[in-house]
């Protein structure tokens, strides 16, 4: 009897211990993991805050710090999630530990010091350095001392992915029909101390067309860069670090099609209003300006996309009118153009065979000016003085060929590409496709809160985006920088 009682007592005690252990396992172990994650998050945040950022060896690139910071905050999100499974918490703990160790050894390793850059400038030498970017892709730096402007360190590290790679790929996917070949991220922070050449060695064919795009993290847009193909290698000039992508395809596939709903020149005010905000949200076209918008990228926020209350008028300066068929009937002076009819021959000519009519070349004029900045140099962002021509003319009035269906945006993009003028633009749900952020390094807000780019066609300021303005033969386009919401150039809508 006594032995049975003792056994029961022992079994009872064991049962209590087991139950208590289970309770402790679920009530204590979970919080203990979360507290460990919390500790690692604190360590990670401290590393981010104290990281010595720069382009010298031993410093951290801005991209490395941003990438690590995102990983730290991902762990913090798991820590804050009360519903996170224990396995997920364990994985997050191990991951943040690994990320911290990786970051501790992620300093720049392939930088040129300021002293070495100065030596290149003094001697006119050339620095070459090759990086293995990814499987099948090498990138070679070529930095010539004669192309450098100041003695500052250069970070030569190149990786396949960067902080903005996903955003960049999404924008080019929305805006181009071309194939994406490869990505690479130049880990140099900001602008280089001059111009450099990057030679990409990979699967490139002389029979293909290529285009490079760079993501602008501040403007959240993309910038196109010309590339050349030599002996199977791609060469492009670079002026700053960041995330890049190489596209491949036919010429038409390498044209930004961010605005899929291009209107006609005779669009009325209601169409223009839709065009300014109704263009496809996710499209990121490369340098385009939508016709009716107060110049995408050129007019300050708030003014861009506003409807011109006088849009229904036909300005005597050559504004377009709408005919009953919806086509623009006016070019310069608003007169319609009709093809002359050929008189019938008095006698048939049986021996002659019909020949196709000769193709008529169409042209337009484009000019880019920033005269107003000359009167507001005190407001100009420091460091941009060198990009302002003494006469305010970035591109003098130039006659260029006009192709069927081309818009103001298309011509601006093609012309700046051919002349080597830097063009920045973005697409978003507010301004639509091809919002012009900057031309020749002169961006919106660079010369006051009311500054930016606007455009005219035949002297008229359309009230809709440039990507919606379809051009006609002999049209005259002007891109003009305003420092006062258009008031200083006759283009305000109030």
TrEMBL record:
Region (Disordered): 255-359
TM annotation in the entry: 9-28
One Pfam match: DUF4430
Keywords of this entry: Membrane, Transmembrane, Transmembrane helix
Skewed-composition ranges (Polar residues): 306-320
Keyword Transcription among record annotations: no
Protein name from the UniProt record: DUF4430 domain-containing protein
The keyword Chloroplast is annotated on this UniProt entry: no
Composition skew (Low complexity), residue ranges: 269-290, 324-341
Record Gene3D superfamilies: 2.170.130.30, AF1782-like
Superkingdom assignment: Bacteria
Cited InterPro entries: Transcobalamin-like_C
Annotated ranges, domain Transcobalamin-like C-terminal: 405-482
Source organism of the structure: Qiania dongpingensis
